Amino acid sequence: MRQERAPLSRHLRVRQDRGHTVLEFLGEIDIAAAEEIVPYLDAATAPPAPRIVIDLSPVEFFDASGLRLLYRARSRVLARDGHLSLVCVHPPTLRVLRVVGLARLLPPLPTLDDALRRPGTPAR
Q1: C-alpha separations of 104 from 2, 8, 30, 54, 97 in Å
Q2: Residue 103 to residues 2, 11, 109, 112, 123, Cα–Cα distance (Å)
Q3: Which residues, at least 6 apart from 39, have a Cβ–Cβ distance to it below 8 Å?
């Protein structure tokens, strides 16, 4: 069952959906947004074997601070034997993910439904 929640900040909405914690990044993900998001990202990735989906669909701008958030999430999920999926269709963001090699480590999926249908892949 999907639980919709109001954004925790201007840049993040968190909800539970099909056994996953969905972190939906909103708007412009820059250094200020990252500072707001980190505590929630850390809380979501703290339990053992977390099942996390980071949804970048609503993102309009994504800089190195956003990349650091993704690497942080990946590292924390790996350390706890969890699963992490990424949803992204924004062409400039996809290009950045490919250039830095993150797309190989965390292949972006085209829809949230695709990410939630998968049983979960290890965040290798």
Answers
A1: 29, 30, 23, 16, 9
A2: 27, 22, 10, 16, 12
A3: none
The number of residues making up the chain comes to 124
For residues 53 and 83, the answer to whether their CB atoms sit within 8 Å is no
85: which strand partners?
53
Chain segment 59-106, per-residue pLDDT in tens: 999 999 999 999 999 999 999 999 999 999 999 999 999 999 999 999
Domain boundaries, given as residue ranges, for the chain: 12-117
Structural fold of domain 12-117: Transcription Regulator spoIIAA (3.30.750)
